[in-house]
Amino acid sequence: DAGITQSPRHKVTETGTPVTLRCHQTENHRYMYWYRQDPGHGLRLIHYSYGVKDTDKGEVSDGYSVSRSKTEDFLLTLESATSSQTSVYFCAISESAGGYNEQFFGPGTRLTVL
Amino acid sequence: GQNIDQPTEMTATEGAIVQINCTYQTSGFNGLFWYQQHAGEAPTFLSYNVLDGLEEKGRFSSFLSRSKGYSYLLLKELQMKDSASYLCAVMDSNYQLIWGAGTKLIIKP
Fold it and tell me: What mean pLDDT, rounded, does chain A reach?
């Protein structure tokens, strides 16, 4: 299994508070992704990174920011959490972007915003 | 817009065969992936198709027709542990994965 961890695994917070989720990998993969997964929807890309300090927006980036200061860590921040951001958040990694490059997923973080 | 369609839920019997379909309309095509996701767990990779035809991997096979925007995942000799959601995803022209909502497969004894 690819070495990907996420922290925290579960979090309950209140509307308006800042929240930071961490993804850590030991595979030295260049690409890292943050997705959210909600019932009735496919995984939706929030932000991704293609190298240290290189990030770009995904499909549902509003209300989220990211940072990648080291190859192994990719942080997702909700500046002011809202109830619509209650979801399961998955981090994923891949060696490169295209072709036969599967994405490996972390265990997920279940976030509840009250 | 981009769209991936797959059935919401399917039921099958242990030992039988089941086919899970996926149709897609995306901006460009750089391959189609199938993932398995058990409840409460992370998705795990099952298969990748980029050329038309059938790819076989043990009890699992995946088929692709690019002209029809269609794929299916075939699971043979079903086991109880195959109860999971099966996610279809297409890599678009920007090399981003577009995901279907998943098909929940229920296996009955």
Answer: 95
Residue B63: left if φ>0, alpha if ψ -120 to 50, beta else—which one? beta
Scored b (16 or more CB within 10 A) or e, B39-56 reads eeebbeebbbbeeeeeee
> For residue B43, what is the nearest residue in chain A, using CA coordinates?
A105
Rg (CA), chain B: 13
Cβ contact (<8 Å) for A103 and B48?
no
Whether pLDDT at A95 is above 70:
yes
Q: How far apart are CA A42 and CA B37, in angstroms?
A: 12
Say if residue A100's pLDDT is above 90.
Answer: no
Q: Is it the case that residue A99 has pLDDT exceeding 90?
A: no
User: Which of B92, B86, B65 lies closest to B7 in space, CA to CA?
Assistant: B86
B70 in contact with A, Cβ within 8 Å: no
Say yes or no to pLDDT of A1 above 90: no
* Min Cα separation B65/chain A (Å): 17
Residue to mutate among B97, B98, B104, with most A CBs inside 10 A, is B97
